[in-house]
Amino acid sequence: MIVNRSSDGLETAVSVSRTRREFLRDAAGLALGGALIQASPFVRAESVRKKRKVVVVTFGGGARDQETFAPEGQENIPHMLNEMAPQSSFFTHVTNQGILGHYVATASLATGVYETLNNFASVAPEHPTIFEYFRKELKRPLSDAWVVAPSNGFHRIGESEVKGFGPGQGARVILPKRLLGLTSSAGTADFEHLLHDNYETPLYTPALAGGEVELQQLETILKLSIGDFAAHARTLSSPDELSLYIAKRLMREESPSLLWITMHDIDVAHSGAYSLYIEGIRRTDRLCAELWKAIQTEPEYAGNTTMFVLPDFGRDSDFDAGGNGFQHHRTGDSASRTTWMMALGAGVRQGVVYDTPIQSIDLVPSIGAMMGFSPSQSSGKSIRELA
Question: 314: pLDDT confidence band, cut at 50, 70 and 90?
């Protein structure tokens, strides 16, 4: 896909960023953060780094400002706007210059390189992932890096095949929806609402790879029997809720230092149902707040965890003749490429908004700077406001 590099596109992106800034200053009381850069709260002591935990949530599926961080969208994100934003450093101008597909965009976020792989292929990222850098350089065990994703297509996200990194050196991947589909005691008719999404069917069960957790490991790792897992799933209304449930169990039982969760409910927008798209945004808003609260109550996480929330990308503008508005993200316009990022917790200034342009691939080197590892093949740059 051709990246929009026109001056009109840049001006639009800057305008979007400034509109987000003004909205957050008015609605959530955030202050402009440019003058505070020299007063970074991060402490570089090695003992602090060893205790540091990072949780990344991709606000997956993409959401536009008019349904989120704009006056007409604020009713859809009450938790993020009223509870989380005032505690955060909020970055209003995050650009994704890569391919706008969910797996490939998430792989780009996880490697710090704009990946060019087939979005629908069962392939590993083409560059080392954040999980491989983290484990290799800091000599961390397999149990210290995890990915939780609702979509079966994400089963290779945990590690690359790059020489010197690769198999066995990345994150363990748990796909709750796939595990549910493999649960023999649970008829698929009971879980149709959890097993389907826009890109797959419950019959899509790719071969185990990249450290993916098998069904029989649920009880050993999560202290959760298959029966309990299936019974709890019956009370949930979405794949993302199931992912959050599993993530909480992981935090309690394994306490990984690096936990990555992909949300995907919002992507129901591809069906063309605006009401379901809004429902997905509201649910994701609630689940992000629930996860942040869980972090505050888990002894291993409270006080030493930094949480990042960011979309993989946006969605098309209503005014681009080549797109379908909220339904897709095919044009590469500013609405689909210019997003935001929220950072909360340990070492992060609270109630500050930054509109300095950054890229989505800057996430990996920024986390590396926090945790003490160097992502040598990343193309991104450490965000100085988090340095």
Answer: confident
In order, the DSSP letters of 222-274 are HS--HHHHHHHHTT-SSHHHHHHHHHHHHHHHT--SEEEEE--GGGGGGGT-H
Written as one letter, the residue type at 112 is G
DSSP annotation string for 116-168: -S-TTS----SS--HHHHHHHHHT--GGGEEEE-SSGGGTTTT----TTS-TT
Domain with 51 in it: what CATH number? 3.40.720.10
Q: For residues 277 and 266, what is the distance between their CA atoms, to the nearest angstrom?
A: 5
> Could you list the residue range(s) of the whole structural domain that residue 168 is in?
47-374
Number of domains forming the structure of the chain = 1
Residue with tokens 């149990």: 143
> Among candidates 338, 316, 319, 333, which has minimal Cα distance to 19?
338
β-pair type (305-310, 53-58):
parallel
Q: What's residue 50's pLDDT?
A: 63
β pairing state of 338-345 and 88-95: antiparallel
